[in-house]
Design a protein that fits this description.
Elements: E1 2-6, H1 10-23, E2 28-32, H2 35-44, E3 50-54, H3 62-72, E4 77-82, H4 88-93, E5 98-101, H5 106-114, E6 128-131, E7 137-140, E8 143-144, H6 150-161, E9 167-168, H7 169-176, H8 184-204, E10 210-212, E11 216-219, E12 224-226, H9 227-232, H10 236-241, H11 253-264
Parallel strand pairs: 1-2, 1-3, 3-4, 4-5, 6-12
Antiparallel strand pairs: 6-7, 7-8, 9-11, 10-11
Helix pairs in contact: 1-5, 2-3, 6-8
Length: about 260
């Protein structure tokens, strides 16, 4: 499901996108603080399933923005978000899907997704998909990969960050245990999470994705669909999905996020 979230107040936009992400972690969320940027995205994308629009957005209000979006996607589900209720009549006249009043709650967002005016025909994405913008997640055919150890997921995240480049065991240990010295203990633990990664990928039917030798580790980027890779390839879906955050659960992701922010500015 492809979702738009728009609010001209940065803090409110963050609250809105966080609520949507908690309720629908599988959704592709494209967040905009400026209506002009949002409409530019709408003109370039292939579909929009739902749009959560703040009613008052400075240069263009949400009612006007909704009318523009509907020109391109008549079946889009429009959900207006506002701290006031005087716009409810206009919202109903537009045959909107719903109306959320601030402060935003997960329950209110969940109610709107459960009661969309135009049902969305959702198909599970085929193959491996990784989300690097925001919190790192990886799925196989729409199902999240489950690892026995959290360090296994972090190891895979770092290899995806390296975009197919080989990483030594020493570098991995330094990244995964940044405050500890590499010794027999960390090297032993690295072998444990290596096995966990192999077993998890094999169970998911994608064991060829992880490549390794005695002291070199990498992934096959050709087997992965990834928002970060789309960004590097200058694809619109990658550029628009970058929300100012990159693998934010890992401290080492801060350097790459700084690079992304520099190139976006």
């Amino acid at each position: 499901m492809k979702v738009i979230a728009a609010d001209d107040e940065a803090m409110m936009l963050e609250e809105l996108t966080d609520a949507i992400r908690r309720v629908r972690p599988d959704a592709e969320i494209n967040a905009f603080q400026y209506p002009s940027k949002m409409l530019e995205f709408v003109k370039q994308t292939d579909t929009v399933d739902a749009a959560f629009l703040d009613v008052q957005m400075g240069s263009m209000n949400g009612i006007e923005a909704a009318k523009e979006i509907k020109k391109y996607f008549p079946k889009v589900n429009i959900i207006f978000v506002t701290g006031y209720d005087q716009y409810m009549k206009d919202a109903f006249e537009m045959h909107s899907s719903g109306y959320v009043t601030k402060p935003i709650t997960d329950e209110a967002i969940r109610h709107e997704f459960d009661n969309l005016r135009n049902p969305v025909d959702e198909q599970e994405p085929a193959g491996l998909h990784a989300c690097c913008f925001g919190t790192f997640e990886i799925t196989m055919n729409g199902v999240p990969l489950k690892f026995d150890r959290s360090k296994t997921k972090e190891m895979l995240a770092y290899l995806i960050d390296r975009h197919g480049a080989s990483v030594s065991s020493g570098e991995l240990c330094a990244v995964l245990w940044e405050n500890e010295k590499a010794d027999k203990g960390t090297n032993h633990y690295l072998q444990i999470i290596k096995k966990d990664l192999i077993d998890t990928l094999k169970k998911a039917g994608c064991e060829g994705f992880f490549r390794f030798s005695r002291n070199e580790y990498s992934i096959d980027p050709a087997m992965l669909h990834c928002d970060f890779y789309d960004y590097l390839d200058n694809k619109p879906e990658g550029i628009w999905r970058y929300n100012g955050e990159y693998m934010n659960q890992y401290s080492w992701g801060e350097n790459k996020n700084s690079w992304l922010l520099y190139h976006k500015s």
